[in-house]
Write a structure and sequence with these properties.
The chain is mainly alpha-helical. It has helices spanning about 25-40, 45-60, 65-85; strands spanning about 10-15, 25. The protein has one domain (about 10-85). α1 (about 25-40) runs antiparallel to α2 and α2 (about 45-60) runs antiparallel to α3. The model has no long low-confidence stretch (mean pLDDT about 85).
């Protein structure tokens, strides 16, 4: 049975894995990246939010809305890029 609330099919990336008994999901990748980004970069919450949303749309695009999801990802990438330009930021290395 497909659970569109807790485990939508378009977010389950891999199901044959001992490390992730219920399947590797986009959420698992996002949580791991959030921990690493928080510990090793100077990325603000707003910057991370836009980056994370773009990543989510790119990952699900082949499985859900295709071009529409890629366009949504571009929207968030553009927001992040514009904010970086406005603030003179080239990278998010820890200060």
């Amino acid at each position: 049975m497909n659970d569109n609330v807790n485990s939508p099919k378009h977010y389950i990336l891999y199901t044959d894995c001992n490390k992730f008994p219920s399947g590797l999901e986009v959420m698992d990748i996002r949580e791991a990246l959030a921990a690493k980004i928080g510990a090793t970069t100077s990325m603000t919450h707003l910057d991370y939010s836009d980056w994370d949303r773009a990543l989510e749309y790119l990952i699900r695009a082949p499985f859900k809305n295709g071009k529409e999801d890629i366009e949504k990802a571009e929207f968030y990438i553009d927001r992040l890029r514009n904010r970086m330009r406005e603030n003179g930021i080239d990278n998010f290395k820890k200060l």
